[in-house]
Design goal:
Elements: H1 4-7, E1 9-14, E2 17-22, H2 23-32, E3 35-37, E4 43-45, H3 51-60, E5 67-72, E6 78-83, H4 89-94, H5 96-107, E7 111-118, H6 122-133
Parallel strand pairs: 1-4
Antiparallel strand pairs: 1-2, 3-4, 5-6, 5-7
């Protein structure tokens, strides 16, 4: 259900120009790391992000989820490969971003077996604990 706070416009400053986006869009873009909150209470484009990515998300619901792939490097050792494949919300809901991340790992010289997981999966949440344990 959409509430009035979901559609309330908020300011987004890109290249010195102000755009108006909804609170829901702002929350989605913040979670994706595409924008950041400013001290002035508005939002700005995060470092390394492009206006093209921003426009894709706003206009088409395109997502760039952060995915980690545990795979094998060229020396036969286990290694993590990270990427943010472009996909629609429907593809994200179906888990297609995992397949895209594995394909990206292969294109970057990694081999299987491969296990892909996203930033919201339990394995990703355990990475900090594992690092502290090592």
């Amino acid at each position: 259900m959409t509430t009035s706070t979901d559609i309330k416009p908020v300011a987004l400053i890109v290249d010195g120009l102000q755009r108006s986006i909804t609170q829901n869009q702002a929350e989605q873009l913040l979670a994706m790391g595409i924008i950041h909150a400013t001290e002035a209470g508005s939002f700005g484009l995060a470092a390394g992000e492009t206006i093209k990515q921003l426009d894709s998300v706003l206009e088409h619901g395109i997502q760039y989820p952060k995915v980690i792939v545990l795979c094998t490097n060229s020396e036969g050792a286990p290694e993590f490969h990270t990427c943010s494949p472009q996909c629609s919300q429907a593809e994200l809901d179906e888990g297609y971003h995992y397949d895209l991340a594995k394909e990206n790992a292969e294109q970057n010289g990694y081999t299987g077996p491969m296990i892909a997981f996203g930033e919201k999966d339990p394995a990703a949440k355990q990475l900090g604990e594992i690092l502290a344990w090592l």
